[in-house]
């Protein structure tokens, strides 16, 4: 069975600070995908990134960056120079199974204060 | 481009009443479809998934059922709602060429059972 742990329940930062959201996963599959989603107050889950298990190269997209370390089963997400609009709940997830079912972590509530 | 719709957006129902939530996807064919529930406290729980018309897999035994009468239509139902059925219901689809593992979510239905 898969499991995703997001140990940080809530994080609060001041605008322009950098913030890292932690994600630790467990899976028995040798091939899997990892994801981050953003859930703003409106409720809809917004896809941010997908990373496959064979690609440990870090990725940067604007102010967002992701650090995948297979040796520690971690897939951490960093927001640089945070903005108020980054306030949301962020979910990490791992996919598995023939239907690519997602197992989500419990989410991290990020609040960016002006 | 692909879009996913859910309705209704909000629903207040009495205990014991029936339920029907609908999800439709446009702009793709033969998608995998998923129903999730998010109760208070943020966790996302996979309820059902479908890899084709008439094919439904249940992840959690409960008071709910799902059906897929058409390729891009996914319906979540209940004959008699319980208080514990309250929550935010999210539909998702996957199957985009080259990104088969990525799930894209609809806007959700907020259900309150009184």
Describe the structure in your own words.
The complex is a heterodimer of chains A (114) and B (114). Chain A is mainly β. Helix content of chain A is 0%, strand content 54%. The mean pLDDT of chain A is 93. Chain B is an all-beta fold and 114 residues long. In chain B, β5 (44-52) and β6 (55-58) form a beta hairpin. The radius of gyration of chain B is 14 Å and the shape is globular. Classes of the chains: A mainly beta (114), B mainly beta (114). The A-B interface holds A 33, 35, 37, 42-47, 50, 89, 91, 95, 98-104, 106-107, 109 and B 32, 34, 41-44, 46, 49, 51, 57, 59, 88, 90, 92, 94, 99-108, 110.
What is shown here, in short?
The complex is a heterodimer of chains A (114) and B (114). Chain A has 114 residues and is an all-beta fold. Chain A has no helices and twelve strands.
**Cα Rg of chain B:** 14 Å
Largest interface: A-B, 23 and 26 residues
Q: Compute the number of helices of chain A.
A: 0
Overall, the morphology of chain A is globular
Query: Main beta sheet of chain B, described?
Result: 7 strands, mixed
**Overall helicity of chain A:** under 10%
Oligomer: heterodimer
Return the string of H and E elements of chain B.
EEEEEEEEEEE
Low-confidence stretches of chain B: none
Please identify the structural class of chain A as seen in this structure.
mainly beta
Gap between N and C termini of chain A: 41 Å
Q: What's the mean pLDDT score of chain A?
A: 93
Count of individual helical segments of chain B: 0
- The backbone outline of chain B, from C-alpha atoms, is globular
Helices and strands of chain B: which structural class? mainly beta
* Rg of chain A (C-alpha, Å): 14 Å
Count of distinct strands of chain A? 12
Helix content of chain B: under 10%
How many beta-strand runs of chain B?
11
Order of helices and strands of chain A: EEEEEEEEEEEE
